[in-house]
Every structure is written in C-alpha cells, then in structure tokens.
Amino acid sequence: MVSTVIPVPPFDLVIFGATGDLAHRKILPSLFRRMAAHQVPAGSRVIGAARSKMSRADFRKAAGEALTRYVEAKLLAPALVERFLGMIDYVSIDAAGEGGWGPLAKKLDEKPDSVRAFYLSVAPQLFTPIAHRLAQAGIATPESRIVVEKPLGHDLASARALNAELAQHFDEHQIYRIDHYLGKETVQNLMAIRFANALFEPLWNSHYVEQVQITVAESIGVEGRGAYYDKAGAMRDMVQNHMMQLLCLTAMEPPSKFEPDAVRDEKLKVIRALDPLKMSDTVRGQYRANGKDGSYLDHVGNPASRTESFVAFRAHIANWRWSGTPFYLRTGKKLSARLSEICVVFKHPPHTIFPQVDTLRGNALIIRLQPNEGITLRVAIKDPGPGGMRLVEVPLDMTFASTLGPDGEMPEAYERLIMDVIRGNQTLFMRGDEVEAAWEWTDPIIQAWEDSGSRPLPYDPGGAGPIDAYKLTGSDGHLWREIAA
Ligand code: BG6
C-alpha cells in the first residue's frame, strides 16, 4: 500500500506556549515527521511564542532536544534536523500584556502570502486574551486559523462563553478545535468502513444491532496531572470529548458529502438525540492503592476527592435508527490494559437450523483504535473436522500495520490534524455547537452526582473497574468485552 502525501501551501505556524510540554512532546515532533515525509513546503516557518526571554538559538536548541527525545532515531538524519531547525524562530511574548506583539506582527508581515495559523498550546484562561491581542495587533487576518484544544470549557456555560469570546475575533471557519481522537487513523477508518462499503450500512441499526460497546481503557493513572484531573474527572476529561466523538461517528447518519459541515451536522444530531442520562445508568469508580503505588486520592493529593477516575454508562439514542439498542461506554485509568475499541454486536439470526447458535456470542464488528489498530469481524463457522455440525466463532482479523507492510507508517493524530489546519479542512475538528451540545448532555449527570453526595466506587488497579459496571450490561443480558491488549 502506498501512502500519498497531499501537498499543503507554505505556512507560518505560531505556537503559543512553545516552551510547554505539548509543544515539545507532540507539536514539534509532528511537524518534523511531516517534513521527513516531504509535506512541509520550503519557505514555511514555525514561530515559537512564549513568555520566556530566550533567543532564537536557545529555542532551536530546545526544539532539537525535543526531537531527540520524542522522534524515532531512524528519522533524525542530521541534514533534515538542520533544515527543520532552520525554519524555527522565536518571539518572547506576554500573552495577556503588550510585550512582543509588534515583533510578531513584523515577522509575519515578511511573508504575507503564507497561511497563518496560531496554535494556542496554553492554559485555557489564555485563549481569550491571546485571541483578543491577535485581533487588536492586526496579526489575525480574515483567513488566519486559530487552534485550541481541550479543556474547551468546564461546563455548558463556560463553553458558551469561550465560543462567544472567540467569535468576537474569529469566524467559525477559522476556529480549529482539536480532539486528538479524531486524528487517529482508525477513527477515520470507522467512517470508511461504514460509508465506503455496502456491507455494513444496511445492518447498522436497531433491527440488527443488539448492543454497542465503546471502551477507552488506560493502564496509567493520573501521572502528575492530578491538579487538573481532580477538577475534571473521567466524564469531563474523556467522555464529553473523545468518547462522545466516537459515539457520534458510530451512530451518525451517512452525511451527504465528506465535507466539514455535512459530517459535523450529522454528529450533532446524534448528541441531540441522546436521552438524558439517568443516575441508575451510570457507574463511577475511583482506583484504590496497589502495593506501593498509591491510590487515586494519594495521586491527586486530595483525601476527600469525589472525582471519578472511571465511568461506565448506558446511553440510548432516541431516533429511528437506534431506538432500543443500548450503547455502553466506559473509560478509566489504572485498568488492566491500554485499549480503545468500538464493538458493534449483531443480533442472532431470526431462525436457526443449528441449535447451538443461541450459545454463541453473535457476530460482532470490533474496531480497534489502539493498540494494534485494525478491525475484526467475529463470525460463526463449522468447527473443522469430524464430530458432527459443531459451530465455533472465529475472528476475521485485519491489523492495519500488517496490511500497510513492515514499512507502512501511520501518521500520528497531531501530524494529520496540523496539516489539516494548514490545508483549511475542518472535517476532523469540532464545531462550537457540537462542543456545547456535548456539555449540555454531560452537565446534568455531573450535577446529579455532585448533588447526591455519593462517592465513586473503589476499584483495584489492573482490573476492569468496579464490579457494578458488569451489572450495567448484565441487567440487559449482555457482557462487557475483556479489557486486554
Ligand atoms: C487526553 C486526556 O485527552 O487523552 C488524558 O486528558 C488521556 O487523561 C489521553 O490520558 C488519552 O489519549 P490517548 O491518545 O493516549 O488515548
């Protein structure tokens, strides 16, 4: 399989928060990998902007170190690294004050024809002041792009306020709200599987689909992000954004075109069709200590915390396609494996000539996001050999890496998303109304948990979350899939 690089126009990408973790870990390495793939046109620039007073040479040095740390050694050819560092510049800027905006404007004016993109890799309280300064200093042109990333608000009211503030200076077509899950290869493959094949779509509804399970399990804990995480919890950190996007892409109607608003309109309809979540349809958990490795409460340094590090729930989509099919979602930290997958389980055949069919689990399409991206179709066949007509379920398995061949490189989410920003394609970015609708759905349940005064259920690290999560599926006669990589 040959991967094709679609050219992008020359660009100036300004990274606010350029000395921060995201810039070093993801943004700079992603740009470098795109350069290695010959996608970064000559004349493009990456301009770091941060409060630290440092020279261009200092920032280049820091960027070089980030590459050494986060890019595969085999890609780091010295000539390429030099070329990459050669396109890097730096301005020291006071995000909320006056300093640095003039020099930034001057730099950008050197290349008026380049695409201008501003990546706000900063604390969310700086989104609005930076947007305001960019407009005030005349740096943002009507075609410039601004990139922001979660947390996009803390609830509906704050998300609305943020959208309104950004809208004062940027039109919706200029705002790129990143959800890095949308940049994952298999998430896009979900659309390809559904809409490029005649096979699944006729069955993709409650007449044929018994249940859908979406799991995003992590083996890591809160890993030094306790201060942020304890104010967020799994619902705000993972469900309101990443999992909601997976649910939308799984459940949406076929869009009329593969175009940003056509796709986003259909996703929005799914969120709006969700029944309000009942407390009895949710299970919250918090991980306990495991030997020397402390508990969630130790990790966030808040012994009284009621924040959930795990959540499972049963959602219903009230529309013609899905009425009657439960969607089970779960996500959590410190589980048995890092595993993200969507599993669509089909109903049993309406009439069977093989009595054993009822004892099988049924056809299922499993879309694996990570690890080992790929799809598996579970089908029943005759157990080979003598012994009568015995049935056995086998996986028809396709791992994308093996299909791409040993040299097949799958771009990281950020690589694809940054190039889409430059290209001006918003299909894989969230629209403001989608973000608001997702908060509108999650807010009441978060509020209900808070009002109830109850605590999340404790669970042991290395498992599948609280046992009650099994009651959720069990009460419908279903069983969660195992969390195993
Ligand atoms: C982030 C969350 O958005 O996604 C983290 O804030 C989480 O808590 C991460 O660990 C998971 O992303 P991935 O790509 O590793 O599945």
SSE inventory with pairings:
Blueprint: E1 11-16, H1 21-36, E2 45-50, H2 56-70, H3 78-86, E3 88-92, H4 101-109, E4 115-120, H5 127-136, E5 145-149, H6 156-169, E6 175-178, H7 185-195, E7 209-217, H8 226-251, H9 260-273, E8 282-287, H10 296-300, E9 310-315, E10 327-332, E11 339-346, E12 364-370, E13 374-382, E14 391-399, H11 400-404, H12 413-423, H13 432-452, E15 457-459, H14 468-474
Parallel strand pairs: 1-2, 1-4, 2-3, 4-5, 5-6, 7-10, 8-15
Antiparallel strand pairs: 7-11, 8-9, 9-10, 11-12, 12-13, 13-14
Helix pairs in contact: 1-2, 1-12, 5-6, 6-13, 8-9, 8-13, 9-13
Bound molecules: 6-O-phosphono-beta-D-glucopyranose.
6-O-phosphono-beta-D-glucopyranose (BG6) binds next to loops.
Number of domains: 2
CATH architecture assignment name of the largest domain: 2-Layer Sandwich
Beta content comes to: 15-25%
Tell me the Rg in angstroms: 24 Å
What is the subunit arrangement here? Answer: single chain
- Could you say which small molecules are bound to this protein? 6-O-phosphono-beta-D-glucopyranose
